[in-house]
Request: fold
Amino acid sequence: MSAHAPSKGAVLLKAVGAAALLGVARAATGGRRPPRDPREEAYADMDAEKRRDLATYGIGYVLALALTGLAFAVVTWGWAAGTTALGIVFALALVQAIVHFRCFLHIDLRRSHRDDLQLILFSSLIVCLMVGGTLVVLFNLRMRMM
Amino acid sequence: MSGSSQAHIGLNLAGPDQHPPGEAELGIYGFWIFLMSDAVLFALLFAIYGTQLAATAGAPGPAAEFKLGPAFTETVILLTSSLTFGLSGIALKYDRTRTALVLWLGVTLLLGLAFLGLEVRDFATMFGDGATPDRSGFLSAFFALVPTHGLHVAAGCIWIVVMLVQIGVHGTDARVKLDLLRLGLFWHFLDIIWIAIFSIVYLQGVL
Reply:
């Protein structure tokens, strides 16, 4: 028993050493190696940013397609009926609009974007008041005239 | 990539020949105000459509006239055009040559025209069935709402052509870049309007 314990420790030590070596090697060849001149750093920066931008549009497109497909599927194959289906469709539309704002129009919660976000939220409030008011008044009128 | 280039909405363009940050920011913000006023216009057209849903007056109604197949195709085309416009923005931001930018703008233009073609064909089918705007309140509201979006897409297509000419004449200078940013916001915004149209008009009509 006591003879086995040190050998276990040695194995562990070796494993840690190997992992550290691997890490160093990766850092030296691929990963975040310190760039030699500022221009190279700028390019590496640009590359990362380009990948991020591409990913934003890609994710936005896939999500938009999925949400659209889901909404059409609910109606086409009658997964839900009547008001429930309508509620699902409207909820999916709302989510998709938010996805579009986030991924295509680049609206997020960053401080520098607050002005635009506030403008959009205020416009949404105005739109809700006007559309909601119009519908309530006119449906009420129709009900009274029936 | 510094703080100043992150100051406005849209795909932030890095580059030496940028406007002073304040100017670009203000120009984009002004365009957002226009977009939101346009959104109010569409919202009221939607409200009118909502009030006229039942007012078919014996003319062909939503369930008879709306077909989900073409509506789905149009939706996918419009979504894809948004992606290709995004790719043109990325080409504008990172590429040294203009080839990819012009190519993606061209693809976006073609997709926009394909969308318009399909929509006009839909309208022609409806007219063939006798569903003309003068038949009922419902059809009037429909033809006020959906073609307004179509007109916006047509305006966007013309704008793309204008930008292609400007890129050819001026290259991608600061003003052209800013205009391309605005055009991008416009194009993506039309997509959001279309989400509301296919949900409220087509899907609700068929339900």
User: Anything to note?
Assistant: The longest helix of chain B spans residues 137-170.
